[in-house]
Write a structure and sequence with these properties.
Chain lengths: 148, 148
Amino acid sequence: MIKIICVGKIKEKFYREAILEYTKRLSKYTKLEIIEIPDSPLDDEINIEGKNILKHIKDNEYVITMEIDGNKLSSLEFASKLDNLFIYNSNITFVIGGSLGLSDLVKIRSNYQLSFSNMTFPHQLFRVILLEQIYRAFKINNNESYHK
Amino acid sequence: MIKIICVGKIKEKFYREAILEYTKRLSKYTKLEIIEIPDSPLDDEINIEGKNILKHIKDNEYVITMEIDGNKLSSLEFASKLDNLFIYNSNITFVIGGSLGLSDLVKIRSNYQLSFSNMTFPHQLFRVILLEQIYRAFKINNNESYHK
């Protein structure tokens, strides 16, 4: 079971459709839940956001936070990490922060910090990128071909 | 003037719409040309693909190839690089390879190797990511706010 906790709504129709498409493709491989936390517009609300995120995380979940300074993996390394995690834990939760970043409360709960890039992406696009990489990981782990 | 040379068609409607949207947003800041080279399905055709790409590059263009082992920049560093390049050269050309990668012919012509990630993305998604970062760079260089 994969859970993605993210902050803020997806405004652009094409991003919503991309997310829907990868959600559909992923349903072949795993149960997937996407939880959307409301965006806090004020800087001092990052801990409220953090508490909201933590409410959706149970003790038995392995939490991967997306952090710009986190570990940088190749797609193959990411696939292999997911594969290994699923041996011991069937609940993997990804957390994507909002425009304020991630609250320390969430960072402390994190089991693994993952970085896709040194670059900053909009959270809408980031959700698509993460879903695509998870989908790619399942294809890799099932030895299925997947075009670049 | 920014040129993006890429390989293969965009099949997914949502990716086409995302590309269209960023193209529209970018038109406020720069002339943009996207050139699509046909995809070569066979491994030994990578040099044909390469020659096709080179046909669209003039001597005065500064060529940035997207390569997984290239330089990793933050969004701010990328914006600053673009800004500096435009002082001396008004023609910047990005090249995104296809599923075969980039031919050596193109790599030799490259002035700068840029990597967005250790991960492999589908070329369709990659085009969106590149356009968004170029758009972000112009926003940064114009001191305009832009939400994550």
